[in-house]
Specification:
295 residues, alpha/beta, seven-stranded parallel beta sheet, 7 strands, 35% helix, 16% strand
């Protein structure tokens, strides 16, 4: 079993598994970090003890990497990648295109009006090409576009500077630019609340449109900010297994388990995590909710 505990010498306190040990052979357990934390020995020790993959919290984002046109700053991101390589921890590139943490100049002029489609595409292509090629062979995958789907009823894509300047195909173009920059690295679309019945059909619509356009999409990252009783046990798996596309991998990119009333639900978050671990197939590598539901 993946979740085990054992004792050492007689009389020693029972040793409980770390997070990475509990999920061994099932999926990777990651953490989001900042490069400044790597100067803290206690933080480094915790990272190496509990986790076996990394995501930069902010330092891969466009506003950090290229705050001004053509002025790239890879210092913090390079430090995280070097740490991952030193300790054998794969690093996810998060992310190349998002409505937040993107400098205004990429899609807007000085008056905050949309750039021409041609200029906006040029800026997006230049950024993606430079960043992806800089980290070629150093990151395990890229979240190419993050949170493009609107949470509002009746609205498909979020009303963002990229959408206003380029149009709905900005998502497609971002994937095409990333693929041209590194044909081998896995490319993901990433979003949250995918299990929501309002949002799920729109996510599927986006994924199918990418497939129909001939875009190679390697997976979908799902941010699972879950609480003990929300979403319920049926909604969450269904949202992740509805037809996102044949042959596509759905990865729980970010999961947090929260309980507002721990006295009422003792150990609930731990049980939820244990349930996820036990439910997955006993084979190495990252897996999906679709895997253990047989979808």
């Amino acid at each position: 079993a993946a979740l085990t505990s054992w004792t050492g010498i007689a009389g020693a306190e029972e040793r409980k598994p770390t997070l990475r040990e509990a999920a061994a052979g099932q999926f990777l357990i990651g953490t989001a970090i900042r490069s400044s934390q790597l100067r803290d020995p206690a933080a480094v020790a915790l990272i190496l003890k509990e986790f076996n993959c990394l995501t930069a919290e902010y330092e891969f984002m466009p506003a950090v990497l290229q705050p001004k046109p053509g002025k790239f700053n890879f210092k913090g991101a390079d430090r995280i990648v070097a740490f991952g390589q030193e300790h054998g921890l794969p690093v996810t590139g998060h992310m190349l295109c998002w409505n937040q943490m993107t400098p205004p100049w990429m899609f807007e002029n000085a008056e905050h009006q949309p750039l021409s489609r041609e200029k906006a595409l040029e800026n997006l292509n230049s950024h993606i090409r430079t960043v992806v090629q800089h980290f070629k062979g150093k990151v395990s995958s890229w979240d190419v576009v993050n949170e493009a789907i609107s949470d509002k009823r009746g609205e498909y894509l979020r009303d963002t500077p990229a959408l206003r300047a380029i149009g709905e195909d900005y998502v497609q173009k971002a994937f095409e630019f990333a693929r041209a920059s590194d044909p081998e690295v896995p490319l993901f679309y990433n979003d949250y609340n995918v299990e929501d019945p309002v949002k799920l059909p729109k996510v599927i619509r986006l994924l199918r449109s990418l497939q129909q356009a001939g875009v190679r999409l390697d997976g979908v990252g799902i941010q699972g900010h879950w609480r003990l009783h929300q979403p319920d046990g049926q909604t969450a798996p269904q949202g992740k297994c509805d037809r996102t596309g044949r042959g596509r991998v759905v990865v729980g990119r970010k999961r947090s388990l929260q309980g507002r009333h721990p006295r009422q639900h003792p150990g609930g978050a731990s049980r939820a995590l244990c349930g996820i671990v036990r439910g997955l197939p006993a084979t190495p590598g990252p897996h999906t909710f679709c895997d253990f539901l047989g979808a």
